[in-house]
């Protein structure tokens, strides 16, 4: 190839030379910009990575701390196991149902062995959950006091006359009087007094069955210490003139039943006796004899 012809390719006019120069400058600026921008991103990525590593280490530390935490297991009264609680303990549906059916009869289990007899759970499950059982203090005390006494070596004592216990009026009993009864503490005594105050007084010792937390054994102890005397100061409800608000305050009449009583009275006239009230839907018939003593039909 002729050298002169080659040189002709590199001959530019003034305008062409300026264009080539500016093109070169633009390419140089782009290259520098790409270098610096990419470098910054690398630095930022490096910083972000360090931050994430620090956060990850914190998560790992928290995870290790959580795995080392030992959760405290709380004791509970097995008489009040719910469906969910029984499921969490590993009981089957049938075993839970047996306990609930037993409780519906107003009966209580007072030992781990009795719990197994009622629910029919396996020995292995009983060994796991029995250490968590907590029975009332009076159950424990009752067992401790049932010690064998050898009366053969005891001197024979002859009683000429059996001393008869004097029963007090439960409507006049104080909290201190109630706590003296075996199986009743501060909480139960307050429930009894609160119920007496809301009713204006008890009319039957059978009402002790309605105090939550009283077992049949403790109720027997109450009956051996207290009785119901005539309560002339008992303020009765004028069932034929009382308002809805006044009737609904009576603990045996819930608000829906109180509305039914008002409706029945407005449509059928005054109530003559408790038999008229029994006709109302939702009336607690099993408590009619007690409720009647709190009502005035005149």
Mean of residue pLDDT values = 79
CA-atom Rg in angstroms? 43 Å
Largest sheet: 2 strands, parallel
Helix content: 40-55%
Number of strands: 4
* Spatial ordering of strands, largest sheet: 1-2
Name the CATH homologous superfamily of the largest domain. Photosystem II 12 kDa extrinsic protein
Top CATH class of the largest domain: Mainly Alpha
Key features of this structure:
298 residues; DNA polymerase, domain 1; 3 domains; 14 helices; 3% strand
Overview of the molecule:
This protein has 298 residues and is an all-alpha fold. It folds into three domains: 78-135, no CATH class; 137-234, Photosystem II 12 kDa extrinsic protein (DNA polymerase, domain 1); 237-296, Orthogonal Bundle (DNA polymerase, domain 1), CATH 1.10.150. 54% of the residues lie in helices and 3% in strands. It contains 14 helices and four strands. Strands 1-2 form a two-stranded parallel ribbon. The protein has a two-stranded parallel sheet with strand order 3-4. The radius of gyration is 43 Å and the shape is elongated. The model is unreliable at 143-152 and 154-163 (pLDDT under 50).
């Amino acid at each position: 190839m002729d050298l002169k012809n080659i040189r002709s390719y590199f001959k530019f006019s003034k305008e062409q030379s300026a264009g080539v120069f500016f093109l070169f400058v633009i390419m140089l600026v782009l290259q520098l910009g790409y270098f610096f921008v990419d470098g910054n991103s690398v630095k930022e990525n490096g910083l972000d990575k360090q931050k994430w590593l620090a956060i990850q280490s914190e998560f790992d530390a928290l995870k290790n701390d959580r795995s080392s935490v030992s959760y405290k297991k709380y004791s509970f009264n097995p008489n009040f196991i719910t469906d969910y609680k029984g499921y969490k303990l590993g009981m089957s549906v049938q075993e839970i149902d047996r306990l609930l059916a037993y409780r519906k009869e107003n009966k209580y289990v007072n030992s781990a062995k009795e719990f197994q007899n009622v629910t029919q759970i396996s020995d292995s499950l009983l060994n796991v959950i029995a250490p968590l059982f907590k029975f009332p203090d009076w159950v424990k005390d009752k067992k401790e006091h049932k010690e064998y006494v050898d009366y053969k070596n005891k001197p024979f004592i002859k009683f000429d006359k059996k001393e008869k216990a004097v029963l007090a009026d439960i409507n006049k009993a104080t909290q201190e009087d109630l706590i003296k009864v075996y199986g009743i503490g501060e909480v139960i005594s307050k429930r009894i007094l609160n119920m007496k105050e809301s009713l204006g007084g008890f009319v039957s010792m059978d009402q002790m069955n309605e105090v939550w937390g009283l077992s049949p054994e403790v109720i027997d102890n109450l009956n051996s210490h207290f009785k119901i005397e005539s309560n002339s100061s008992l303020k009765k409800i004028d069932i034929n003139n009382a308002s809805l608000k006044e009737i609904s305050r009576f603990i045996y009449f819930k608000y829906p039943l109180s509305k039914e009583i008002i409706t029945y009275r407005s449509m059928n006239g005054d109530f003559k006796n408790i038999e008229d009230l029994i006709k109302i839907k939702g009336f607690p018939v099993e408590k009619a004899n007690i409720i009647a003593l709190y009502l005035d039909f005149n």
